[in-house]
Design brief:
The chain is an alpha/beta fold and 408 residues long. Helices cover 36% and strands 14% of the residues. Helix 7 crosses helix 13 and helix 9 runs parallel beside helix 10. The protein starts with 22 loop residues before the first strand and ends in a 5-residue tail after the last helix. The structure holds 3'-phosphate-adenosine-5'-phosphate sulfate and adenosine-5'-diphosphate (ADP). One of its GO terms (cellular component) is cytoplasm.
Length: 408
């Protein structure tokens, strides 16, 4: 028999392959928990969803058996069984400072006998001074989602390395201890993780400190979290068709370009629909996809310190909040403007004749006529353009931007 020929659905040795489990990409918090679970940092916990444990994993509806957890690039990291048990598959290999992500066992091999210092923010000169008499140290940079104070996870490692340069003998280890949204829980979990890393060696708690940062640390903080006027900014206009979003957005874009200190990308509703979102309809689902795409691009722009000006209708509150979350996670500032021109005025303008066609039933699911618009309650500026000049409306937005020190 030719062993190279397999009956479809059979391995070479005749076994029938079991179907691959569904894949799921966890949240950043869950990915951090997974890394600690697999490495033994959360011992005695070894799996997700143990009774009373904050280390939980939420799976999409309809997924209840074994699941393969993948990182955002699709690399399979672990299999998780229905009861939360974790079987590791691959260790994450990429990501900044990956070499500093050690397990408690690796830390034992390299640094047993040192004193351990949990670090969640940039170290000030007084804290460094206090640590300099403590002998050989391991600075545990607590980089998990939501834990670093005023810094990104990478920024915290860079700031801790800069501080270590001021100490006689300090190694830095990155520990992805994530916040679970409750101070008490976070504290208890932190103690558990740090105890696992120190394994009986001394733990040194940092005293509160409002002293200056050493120059090298301050430079890291400044680059990682620039002041508002240099931080990435997403100016997001929402409102009915014809309310004035594009008109105001274009004028503001010109003002920012005239100042010459920022790069600007425009993500106008109509333009996006001809490019990034070509082919999408105006169903609720497609509108949400459209806004999430705009939000994703805008968040990336803000991550690099640029200004993104978006002007889609964006009628759904939950989708707008998702965009806010994406942008804030990227370190950008999300500035929502509600162009609150009432339907009657938009319909009176009817620049493109769309309202008339929608009323005639020629355009289904038209916002304000046959599709809902959910008014935002979290807008920083609300502008009703009725009876006002374009300049007045633009000034309303610019004034608030200046007040919040987001533009000069
Ligand atoms: N059914 C329906 N409902 C609303 N709008 C419609 C519709 N069909 C076409 N148009 C035109 O498409 C523009 C809105 O696209 P957006 O991408 O901003 O909409 S959404 O945010 O995805 O809801 C909108 O442009 P603006 O006037 O710039 O808002 C309309 O000209
Ligand atoms: N104060 C104002 N601010 C903005 N647009 C105004 C104002 N007054 C009248 N308009 C007019 O209303 C229309 C708004 O269209 P547009 O900016 O394309 O709206 P949208 O992008 O929300 O669909 C334009 O023709 C604009 O000239």
């Amino acid at each position: 028999m030719d062993r190279s020929v397999r009956t479809p659905g059979q391995w070479q040795d005749g076994r029938v392959p079991t179907p691959a489990p569904p894949q799921h990409c966890p949240t950043p918090r869950e990915l951090d928990d997974l890394e600690l679970l697999v490495g033994g940092g959360l011992a005695p916990l070894t799996g997700f969803n143990e009774p009373g444990s904050p280390v939980t994993l939420a799976l999409p509806d309809g997924v209840d058996g074994t699941v393969e957890l993948v990182d955002p690039e699709g690399l399979p990291l672990a299999r998780v069984t229905a009861n939360g048990g974790v079987q590791p598959l691959t260790h994450p290999q990429f990501g900044p400072f990956r070499a500093l992500h050690l397990t408690p066992t690796q830390v034992r091999e390299q640094y047993a006998g040192r004193s351990f210092v949990p670090v969640s923010g940039p170290l000030g000169v007084d804290q460094i001074e206090a640590l300099s008499g403590e002998g050989p140290l391991v600075l545990l940079a607590l980089t998990g989602a939501g834990t670093p104070e005023g810094l990104s996870p990478v920024g915290l490692v860079r700031a801790t390395l800069a501080a270590a340069g001021h100490l006689p003998d300090a190694a830095v280890v990155a520990v992805p201890l994530a916040s679970h949204g409750d101070a008490r829980v976070d504290h208890d979990l932190g103690v558990q993780v740090v105890t696992n890393y120190a394994d009986g060696d001394r733990v040194v708690a940092l005293a509160d400190d409002d002293s200056d940062l050493p120059d090298e640390v301050a430079a890291v903080v400044d680059a990682d979290r620039p002041p508002p006027e240099r931080r990435g900014l997403v100016l997001f206009f929402t409102g009915l068709s014809g309310s004035g979003k594009s008109t105001i957005a274009r004028a503001i874009q010109d003002r920012v370009l005239e100042q010459g200190t920022r790069t600007v990308t425009s993500l106008d509703g109509d333009v996006v629909r001809r490019n990034l979102s070509a082919g999408l309809t105006f169903s609720k689902e497609d509108r949400e996809t459209n806004i999430r795409r705009i939000g994703w691009v805008a968040a990336e722009i803000s991550r690099h310190g640029g200004v993104a000006i978006c002007s889609p209708i964006a009628p759904f509150d939950a989708t707008r909040k998702q965009v806010r979350h994406l942008v804030e996670e990227a370190g950008g500032e999300f500035f929502l403007v509600h162009v609150a021109t009432p339907l009657e005025e938009c319909e009176r303008r009817d620049r493109k004749g769309l309202y008339a066609r929608a009323r005639a039933g020629e355009i289904p699911e038209f916002t304000g006529i046959s599709s809902p618009y959910e008014e935002p309650e979290d807008a920083r500026v609300r502008v009703d353009t009725t009876g006002r000049t374009i300049d007045e409306c633009v000034e309303d937005v610019l004034a608030r931007l200046r007040q919040d020190q987001l533009l000069q």
